[in-house]
Design brief:
heterodimer; A: about 290 residues; six-stranded mixed beta sheet; four-stranded antiparallel beta sheet; B: about 300 residues; mainly alpha; two-stranded antiparallel ribbon
């Protein structure tokens, strides 16, 4: 690996829409964002806001309707091993052992069996999975599967890592541990990370910067810096700094989530205050 | 003494380490129960672990025995209640005939010939249907071109092909192999296609993100992902291959186990009818077991134990 910084993502005026039988659906509208080399950036937003769409476009699975995405100055032509991806669903190949899964990207690069084995075992060791190298994925727990998924994406030496709600299906305890493992590996490897989640704590705990998206059509609503020092400890989640960030993000997201659920629901409606009973009790009306 | 023996007994099902016995050093404790334990323990554990399987074997043997007994009684008393057992051979007659047939090179050649037809027909069907199914599953154009034709031919039972097949091929042998081929072709094709449809697209995307080329994705993702379904197709196809083969041999054959069974009827060799039937059953069973075994070897990740 050379020393020049890599993994600079520049998204400009990104729009993505698709046609249905009746209309054109706008999924993402005029999004511009950047990930500096070595930076950890999260995108957070209500479900259906197009944050995964955006990530899939950076991965090269979707073409923007308008706007550009460049990584280190180059436009994206399609999926590539330069941008490792970890999916929300477990995506290990069930017919390959843990080590064969990790070796896959290197095999595609034409690396020799010996080289592959050394690289895979080193990375598996880092993730504490060496004992399971010869297991098939269906023997692993969810947390272990996602760890292998991360290791597999890192094995090719990508410029950056794209993660699409990777810990969404894990239980709360496992998720916190996985977050720490991820930050540890990220700090060692110094690559850029673009992380999509709907979990506010997760976004703050992991990131240098958080982009908050609006409900569909997705646009950037706010960009929040996370000034918490690194390395981060779980105890920081109780600090006043963290809680202030959390409160701010929470209200941003809440507004958008309510919109995403439909215009009818407002804060007032949720508390039942907007219903005019004309002086009668609810029971009388019903 | 009483208490010590009890203690050793209690530890038995939990602890499997061999050095439990020497640790109990008191001379009295080394008496009978502990001396027996090291040998009895593994046996007992094995019995406990395999209780379900042992039961299945016992029950299976019982039901087979009951069947043979019923057969024996029905034929011995020449039961005639609408269904007639007057001419049905008794099991002991069939066994006697089987003993002689197994030494008979003519019977042996019938069996070998049938197996050869199955092997050739089934192999060609596999070699054509699996790649075709894979390509059809991957490329829409090919699927849309081939699928309508295959849907037209699929409902036609292989046996209905017998007259056409005799016209098409220069010799009987080829037409029988062709019928066998047809019988196994469609189940293999349809299941391969289904397997391709079921491939989890997230695995394909994962492979793309790891730099896999189109060819590599086909080889490393689509093919192994479809393999379990392909093997389902092979198992079903093997069954239909036997059905088709036997029918074809009965209609147009001069050799083969199907022909042997039919000829036995014409020649009033009633024991041979049952012998032929049992033979077909055993061969069918053996060939599906062979496919299952192959699947086990080829797909180590799908093993349940």
């Amino acid at each position: 690996m050379s020393n020049e910084p890599k993994g600079f993502v520049d998204i400009r005026d990104f729009c993505l829409s698709y046609d249905t039988l009746y209309s054109e659906v706008e999924a993402v509208r005029h999004v511009s964002l950047r990930v500096e080399p070595g930076e950890f950036v999260s995108i957070i937003g209500p479900s259906g806001c197009g944050k995964s769409t955006l990530l899939n476009a950076v991965a090269g699975f979707l073409k923007p309707t308008d706007g550009t995405i460049t990584v280190d100055g180059e436009a994206i032509g399609g999926p590539s091993a330069d941008r490792g991806m970890v999916f929300q669903q477990y995506s290990l190949f069930p017919w390959k052992t843990v080590r064969e899964n990790v070796e896959f990207g290197l095999k595609m690069k034409g690396k020799s069996k010996h080289q592959r084995e050394i690289a895979a075992r080193t990375l598996l060791g880092l993730a504490g999975l060496l004992a399971f190298e010869n297991h098939y994925p269906d023997r692993l727990s969810g947390g272990m599967k996602q760890r292998v998924g991360i290791v597999r994406a890192l094995a090719t030496g990508p410029k950056m890592l794209l993660l699409d709600e990777p810990f969404g299906s894990l239980d709360a305890q496992t998720r916190v541990i996985m977050q720490q493992i991820l930050t540890n590996m990220w700090q060692r490897l110094k690559i850029s990370v673009l992380f999509v989640t709907h979990d506010i704590d997760e976004a703050i705990f992991l990131s240098d910067r958080v982009y908050c998206m609006t409900a569909r059509p997705g646009t950037i609503k706010a960009e929040i810096m996370v000034p918490l020092e690194r390395p981060r400890q779980q105890a920081m989640m109780m600090s006043s700094e963290f809680l202030a960030l959390r409160r701010g993000l929470m209200s941003l997201i809440r507004e958008e989530s309510l919109k995403a659920m439909g215009g009818e629901i407002s804060d007032l409606a949720l508390q039942g205050l907007s219903i005019d009973l004309h002086g009668q009790s609810l029971a009388d009306i019903i | 003494m009483e208490r010590l023996a009890l203690k050793a007994d209690a530890a038995e099902p939990v602890d499997i380490s061999p050095h439990v016995a020497p640790e109990i050093s008191s001379p009295e404790a080394a008496a009978a129960p502990i001396a027996v334990a090291p040998i009895a323990k593994p046996v007992r554990r094995w019995l406990a672990l395999n209780r379900g399987r042992l039961w299945a074997v016992v029950l299976g043997a019982l039901s087979l025995f009951a069947f043979l007994l019923a057969w024996h009684l029905l034929t011995k008393y020449r039961v005639n209640i609408y269904v007639r057992f007057l001419n049905v051979p008794a099991p002991e007659q069939v066994l006697d005939r089987a003993m002689r047939a197994f030494g008979d090179p003519k019977f042996f050649s019938h069996v070998v010939l049938s197996c050869r037809r199955i092997l050739i027909g089934f192999l060609i069907a596999t070699l054509v249907a699996v790649p075709l199914g894979l390509v059809m599953g991957r490329f829409r154009v090919i699927r849309e071109l081939v699928f309508p034709v295959s849907e037209v031919f699929r409902p036609i039972p292989a046996i209905a092909w017998v007259p056409m097949s005799i016209m098409l091929w220069p010799s009987n042998e080829e037409s029988i192999v062709f019928i066998t081929f047809l019988g196994s072709f469609f189940p293999i094709l349809i299941n391969t296609l289904h397997g391709m449809k079921m491939v989890d697209q997230v695995l394909v995307r994962a492979a793309q993100c790891l730099g896999a080329s189109e060819v590599a994705i086909f080889r490393e993702v689509y093919f192994p992902a479809a393999l379990p379904h392909i093997f389902t197709g092979l198992t079903v196809g093997m069954g239909v291959a036997w059905v088709s083969l036997i029918a074809a041999e009965m209609i147009s054959g001069q050799f083969g186990i199907g022909y042997f069974t039919w000829e036995a009827y014409s020649l009033v060799q009633y024991s041979d009818i049952a012998l032929g039937m049992i033979c077909i059953g055993v061969l069918g069973l053996a060939s599906s077991a062979a496919i299952r075994g192959l699947g086990h070897v080829v797909m180590p990740w799908a093993r349940t134990t």
